[in-house]
C-alpha cells in the first residue's frame, strides 16, 4: 500500500531526524511527519534581519558534538561536510572596570585569567576541570546514550566505585552550593554559576547536581556549526533520503490511530491515513502525544494524571538577533585582545547576587530592571554568517513565559519588544562602545511567546520540553512507564527532549530511542555500541 510504512515518526527536530536516519539505514520504510513547512526543528538557520545575514534562531551552542554517536555513525563531517568551529576562547565575562574573566579551551590559559581575580580560585578551577573531565569521559558522557536505571539501582551502582561516589556527591548539592564551596571571588562565582545554570538548572535545586559535571566540562567544549546549525539537519535529511526515507511537511496530525491498545498509524486533519507495520514514534511533547493525539479515553487515569502533572520550564529565552555594520570591539580587549574573539559573553552582571535576584524574580513572572544575558557574534568565527566586514549578533536573555504584568500576551506587544531590544543594546554598548544604535542595521526579537507559537511542542517556551527537576529526570523522564521509550500503547514509542536524557540538542533521546525501537521490533542494528559505553559497562559504571 502507498500509505503503509514500517515506522512513522512524528516530528523532525534533531531527535526525529536522528531516529529516522538510523532506522531508514537499517532497511526500514520510514515516514517522518512535520507540522511546520520545513524539517530541522531547533536546528534552524534563517535570514530574519537583512539579506546575507544568517541567524541561528534556536540551537547555536552545540555541546555534545564530540560525544554523540550520530556524528561518527553517519560520518557527518566527511560525507556531508558538516563542520564545527571550536573557538579557543569559549566564555568571556567583561566587567565595567575593563577587566575580564576568560574561559579558554586551554585549562592553563583559563587559570591564568582567573588568577588575576583569585589564585585560590584558579587552583580550584584546575582541580575541578580535571575531576569533571574524568567524570564526563567515564560516566556522564556514556550515560547520555543508554537507557536510565531506576534511582535505587543507579545509586547502588554509583556507591560501588570511587568515581560513582564523586558523582553522587554532586547530585546531593545545589548548583549554588557547589559554586560557593568551590570558588571564593564573587566575579568568578558569577560566571561559573551562570554557565552551570543557564540551560535550565535551578540554582537552589538539589537532586539534579549530577548535571553540574556535564555543564562544567562542556563549559570549554562548545561548538558553532560552520554555515549555520541547519547544516546538521540538512545532513540527516540527506541520509534519510539516501535510504529511501520520506518526509511530509505541513502535516497537521489529527490523531494517532490506536486499535485494541496498539498504535497502528497516524491520521492527518484532511483524513489521510498512514499505517505503521512496526512502530509509531513521537518526538513531540508528552501532552500532545498522549492527551491530544492518543486520547485520554485510551489511557489509564493514573497515567493521565502523571502527564498532567508534568512541569514546564521555569524560564524560557528572549533572543535579539542583530545585523551589525561591524563586529564589536570590547573595552576589555584593550588589555586582552583575545576578548574580541570570544564565543560567548556574559554581560550585565556585576555580582552573583544580581544573578540570583534575576532567577528569583523570574519565578514570580518579573523581569529585573538590570537583566544580564549571553551575547555571541557567530560571524566573527564563521564569516559565512554575515556580509564581508559586517557581523551577525545574538543576545540571549533568560525570561519567564508568563509575565506578572500583562501575561504572555505582553510579549507580543511591539512597544514592549522594542523596550527589551533597546535595553539589551544599551547594555551591549557599555561593554562594546563601538556598537552604537547607528551600527545596528536591523534587529529581530524572539520572545518566549514566539517560541511557543513557532514550536507547538515547546509549551510556555520550554526549549527542553520540560523542567529539569528530580522528579522529571533519569528514570522519571517523562515518567517511569515511558523513560525507556516504550509507552502503555503497544508499538507507540517516545523519543523527544521530554524523554531521558533531555534537551538542548544533545542527541541522546533520539539515539536511545532508535536502539529501543530496533530491539523491540526485531530490527537488525547496523551500528555498533559506542566504545565509551562498552568501556563504562566493563568498569561497572553502566548496566
Based on the coordinates given, report the CATH architecture of the domain at 4-42 and 226-310 and 466-538: 3-Layer(bba) Sandwich
Summarize the amount of helix as a percent range.
25-40%
Q: Taking Cα atoms only, what radius of gyration do you get, to the nearest Å?
A: 23 Å
Please report the number of helical segments: 18
The total beta strand count reads 18
Biggest sheet: strands, sense, closure?
7 strands, mixed
CATH topology of the domain at 4-42 and 226-310 and 466-538: FAD/NAD(P)-binding domain
Given this structure, which CATH class of the domain at 4-42 and 226-310 and 466-538 is correct? Alpha Beta
Separation of the first and last Cα atoms: 42 Å
Strand content: 15-25%
Shape: globular
What is the averaged pLDDT score? 96
Give me the secondary-structure category.
alpha/beta
Regarding quaternary structure, what we see is single chain
Characterization of this structure:
- With about 550 residues, this protein is α/β, with parallel strands linked by helices.
- The chain has a domain at about 5-40 and about 225-310 and about 465-540: FAD/NAD(P)-binding domain (3-Layer(bba) Sandwich).
- About 35% of the residues lie in helices and about 15% in strands.
- It has 18 helices and 18 strands.
- Strands 1, 2, 9, 10, 11, 12 and 18 form a seven-stranded mixed sheet that branches. It has a seven-stranded mixed sheet with strand order 7-6-14-15-16-13-17, sandwiched between helices. The chain has a two-stranded antiparallel sheet with strand order 3-4.
- The longest helix is centred in the N-terminal third of the chain and has 25 residues, at about 120-145.
- The model has no long low-confidence stretch (mean pLDDT about 95).
Amino acid at each position: 500500500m502507498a500509505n503503509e510504512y514500517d515506522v512513522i515518526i512524528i516530528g523532525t527536530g534533531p531527535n526525529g531526524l536522528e531516529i529516522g536516519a538510523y532506522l531508514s539505514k537499517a532497511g526500514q520504510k520510514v515516514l517522518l511527519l512535520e507540522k511546520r513547512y520545513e524539517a530541522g526543528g531547533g536546528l534552524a538557520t534563517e535570514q530574519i534581519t537583512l539579506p546575507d545575514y544568517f541567524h541561528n534562531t534556536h540551537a547555536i551552542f552545540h555541546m555534545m558534538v564530540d560525544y554523540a554517536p550520530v556524528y561518527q555513525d553517519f560520518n557527518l563531517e566527511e560525507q556531508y561536510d558538516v563542520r564545527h568551529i571550536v573557538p579557543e576562547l569559549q566564555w568571556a565575562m567583561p566587567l565595567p572596570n575593563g577587566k575580564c574573566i576568560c574561559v579558554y579551551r586551554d585549562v592553563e590559559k583559563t587559570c591564568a585569567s582567573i588568577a588575576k581575580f583569585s589564585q585560590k580560585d584558579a587552583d580550584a578551577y584546575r582541580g575541578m576541570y580535571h575531576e569533571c573531565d574524568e567524570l564526563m569521559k567515564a560516566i556522564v558522557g556514556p550515560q547520555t546514550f543508554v537507557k536510565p536505571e531506576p534511582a535505587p539501582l543507579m545509586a547502588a551502582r554509583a556507591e560501588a566505585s570511587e568515581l560513582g561516589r564523586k558523582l553522587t556527591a554532586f547530585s546531593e548539592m545545589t548548583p549554588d552550593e557547589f559554586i560557593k564551596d568551590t570558588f571564593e571571588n564573587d566575579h568568578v562565582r558569577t560566571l561559573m554559576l551562570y554557565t552551570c545554570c543557564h540551560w535550565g538548572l535551578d540554582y537552589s535545586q538539589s537532586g539534579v547536581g549530577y548535571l553540574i559535571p556535564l555543564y562544567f566540562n562542556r563549559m570549554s567544549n562548545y561548538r558553532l556549526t560552520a554555515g549555520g546549525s541547519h547544516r546538521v539537519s540538512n545532513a540527516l535529511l540527506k541520509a534519510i533520503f539516501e535510504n529511501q526515507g520520506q518526509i511530509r511537511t505541513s502535516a497537521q496530525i489529527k490523531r494517532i490511530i490506536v486499535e485494541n491498545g496498539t498504535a497502528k498509524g497516524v491520521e492527518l486533519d484532511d483524513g489521510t491515513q498512514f499505517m505503521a507495520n512496526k512502530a509509531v514514534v513521537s518526538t513531540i511533547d508528552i501532552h500532545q502525544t498522549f492527551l491530544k493525539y492518543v486520547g485520554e479515553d485510551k489511557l489509564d487515569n493514573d497515567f493521565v494524571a502523571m502527564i498532567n502533572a508534568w512541569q514546564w520550564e521555569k524560564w524560557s529565552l528572549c533572543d535579539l538577533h542583530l545585523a551589525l555594520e561591524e563586529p564589536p570591539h570590547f573595552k576589555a580587549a584593550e588589555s586582552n585582545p583575545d576578548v574580541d574573539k570570544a564565543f560567548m559573553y556574559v554581560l550585565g552582571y556585576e555580582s552573583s547576587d544580581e544573578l540570583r535576584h534575576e532567577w528569583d524574580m523570574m519565578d514570580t513572572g518579573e523581569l529585573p530592571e538590570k537583566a544580564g544575558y549571553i551575547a555571541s557574534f557567530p560571524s566573527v568565527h564563521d564569516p559565512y554568517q554575515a556580509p564581508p566586514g559586517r557581523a551577525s549578533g545574538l543576545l540571549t536573555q533568560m525570561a519567564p513565559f508568563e509575565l506578572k504584568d500583562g501575561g504572555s500576551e505582553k510579549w507580543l506587544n511591539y512597544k514592549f519588544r522594542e523596550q527589551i531590544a533597546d535595553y539589551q543594546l544599551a547594555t551591549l554598548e557599555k561593554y562594546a562602545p563601538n556598537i552604537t544604535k547607528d551600527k545596528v542595521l536591523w534587529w529581530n526579537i524572539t520572545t518566549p511567546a514566539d517560541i511557543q507559537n513557532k514550536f507547538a511542542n515547546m509549551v510556555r517556551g520550554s526549549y527542553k520540553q520540560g523542567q529539569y527537576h528530580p522528579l522529571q529526570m533519569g528514570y522519571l523522564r517523562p515518567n517511569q512507564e515511558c523513560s525507556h521509550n516504550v509507552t502503555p500503547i503497544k508499538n507507540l514509542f517516545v523519543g523527544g527532549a521530554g524523554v531521558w536524557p533531555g534537551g538542548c540538542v544533545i542527541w541522546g533521546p533520539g539515539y536511545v530511542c532508535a536502539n529501543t525501537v530496533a530491539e523491540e521490533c526485531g530490527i537488525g542494528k547496523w551500528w555498533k555500541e559506542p566504545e565509551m559505553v562498552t568501556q563504562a559497562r566493563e568498569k561497572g559504571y553502566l548496566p
